[in-house]
């Protein structure tokens, strides 16, 4: 079974509470999603391998740690996932970015895939799939299916708010994919919204309705 990490860092919790507030406008919502994504990326990348290199300071030669060069790919699920990309890229600027387009059929609530564009060497990269909301898990499961079909082997899922059923469904479909989230909420309502959640993340990020 994959691991679920719910970040209890005070800064992440504080910022998440701010964006839950329905009075927060698009600009602030987008900025804070970006900050949360950076803070989450800091924790998610904690196990990146390092190696020793020599460095000469103004004072002495020494041997210190550097990243061992494990390649990363960030794959936002369109469109709300886009809101998390820049925040992660600030920490890992050499990462490549893939895109997976899904929309949720408003009647069936099932995800429909319409676009997949990934780095060519996706099979050699650790892939961070990002989507602010993990509701039923349908989009995340389809996105991970699409990645595995194209050779991706090491995949992590990063979401800001998750419903318990979404976590359960992803863990059942992809027991090898660890899930990282800032908030594990109560349930999904009949309209497919996470409760208490923060509403439609895509609409709030992009100022649409
Ligand atoms: N997608 C969203 O943007 N919000 C929800 O609450 C559920 C799915």
Automatic annotation (TrEMBL):
Its cofactor is Mg(2+). Binds 1 Mg(2+) ion per subunit. The magnesium is bound as Mg-PRPP. CDD domains: PRTases_typeI (cd06223). One of its GO terms (cellular component) is cytoplasm. Keywords: Allosteric enzyme, Glycosyltransferase, GTP-binding, Magnesium, Nucleotide-binding, Transferase. Pathway: Pyrimidine metabolism; UMP biosynthesis via salvage pathway; UMP from uracil: step 1/1. Its EC number is 2.4.2.9. 5-phospho-alpha-D-ribose 1-diphosphate binds at residues 79, 104, 131-139, 200. Transmembrane segments: none annotated. Residues 6-208 form the Phosphoribosyltransferase domain. It catalyses: UMP + diphosphate = 5-phospho-alpha-D-ribose 1-diphosphate + uracil. Allosterically activated by GTP. GO terms for molecular function: GTP binding; magnesium ion binding; uracil phosphoribosyltransferase activity. GO terms for biological process: UMP salvage; uracil salvage. Pfam families: UPRTase (PF14681). Uracil binds at residues 194, 199-201. Belongs to the UPRTase family. Catalyzes the conversion of uracil and 5-phospho-alpha-D-ribose 1-diphosphate (PRPP) to UMP and diphosphate. This is Uracil phosphoribosyltransferase.
